[in-house]
Amino acid sequence: MPPLVAAGLLMASTLVARCGERPIVIAHRGASGERPEHTLESYRLGIEQGADFVEPDLVATKDGVLVCRHENEISTTTDVASRPEFAARRATKSIDGVELSGWFSEDFTLAEMKTLRARERLPQLRGTAFDGRFGVPTFEELLALVAAENARPERRGRPVGVYPETKHPSYFEGRGLALEPPLADALRRHGLDRGDAPVFVQSFEVSNLRRLKTLTRAPLVQLIEPKGRPWDFTLGRSARTYADMTRPDGLRDIAQYARGIGVHKNLVLPRGSGDRLQAPTSLVMDAHAAGLVIHVFTLRAENQFLPAELRQGAGLQGTGDLEAEATAFLKAGVDGFFTDFPAVGVRARDAYVSR
Questions:
Q1: Per-residue pLDDT tens over the stretch 50-109
Q2: Nearest to 212 by CA among 244, 185, 176, 233
Q3: How many Å apart are CA 171 and CA 183, to the nearest integer?
Q4: The pTM is what?
Q5: Separation CA 73–CA 59 (nearest Å)
Q6: What is the largest CA-CA distance in the chain?
Q7: Cα dihedral sign for 211, 213, 215, 218?
């Protein structure tokens, strides 16, 4: 029997089904406001803080293994730049139309990746106390962590789920390192290849979600930015934009291959004069009318990420009222939100649903 099924995740249908009832809290890259993102320690803390899902971003190594990193350029989240043995690996590449210089996951084997140590991506905000203490996990290691957590008796009936994102899927496919097959295989090995599994697989591209629909029965989520278009649309010379995808006909098209949308928070509660929150747009109502759940990203506690009226203390590096922002999105009707601070998100969600 697959390990996550053995851990009691046959009850996971309640987790996905409640997305239209009890909003979910997604630990964005784990509890990344308190530990370096995409480390097992960050994911573990997010689970301890009560998140319903933990979110790994997935990139590929040279030997085709999925590892948890925000980007395939890894110098901002690991110590690779300080490692003399890898100095010659520095390269300049075009990633989805953007020229980047640094070190890239696809140029390292898994064994080499495992020698690197994680660093805080936002040291000016969150410090460096945990730099060098944690390694780079594989997707398989994260799934094993989730299985172990869900096997604990006290978690029976409320399993934590996984919410993986495929990063730059067209780019990796072009290098013979397609992300979809190993992702689908991993879900299948862990008993998560089901429509009621505690899983959402997300992407900013469309073609790879449509491909994943043929490889797995796990729910899919289309990510949407305020501007621009999916990179695979650019490659295919499609004129459609993210804005087109948020219109009622675009949402109905998404509903043909996805269970929901994950959108930048400003698409639900836009900012107006003085960077203050405005009235909700119709996007939540339109998504629900199309049969889609809607999750927003990313809620963070630091003032520079909050609307002006929720900032506290001096300067943009101070910490403001994240709980109030989360409550505002819950009042707007979202089905869940990504946050770097799951404990605050859970507290806001629980207070809101108990009213």
A1: 999 999 999 999 999 999 999 999 999 999 999 999 999 999 999 999 999 999 999 999
A2: 185
A3: 16
A4: 0.93
A5: 10
A6: 58
A7: positive
Across 230-237, average pLDDT: 96
- The two tokens of residue 210 are 């449509």
At 18, the amino acid letter reads: R
User: CA 251 to CA 254: how far, in whole Å?
Assistant: 5
Strands 220-224 and 57-60: unpaired
Parallel, antiparallel, or unpaired for β 98-102 and 91-95? antiparallel
CB 340 within 8 A of CB 29: yes
For 154, counting Cβ atoms within 10 Å of its Cβ (0-12 exposed, 13-18 middle, 19+ buried), the class is exposed
Nearby residues of 315 by Cβ (< 8 Å), 6 or more positions away: 303
Q: Of 169, 161, 212, 213, which Cα lies nearest the Cα of 190?
A: 161
The string of pLDDT tens digits covering residues 134-159 is: 999 999 999 999 999 999 988 777 88
> What are the residues whose beta carbons fall under 8 Å from the beta carbon of 46, sequence distance 6 or more?
27, 30, 31, 54, 342
Angle, CA of 3, 295 and 57, to the nearest 5°: 50
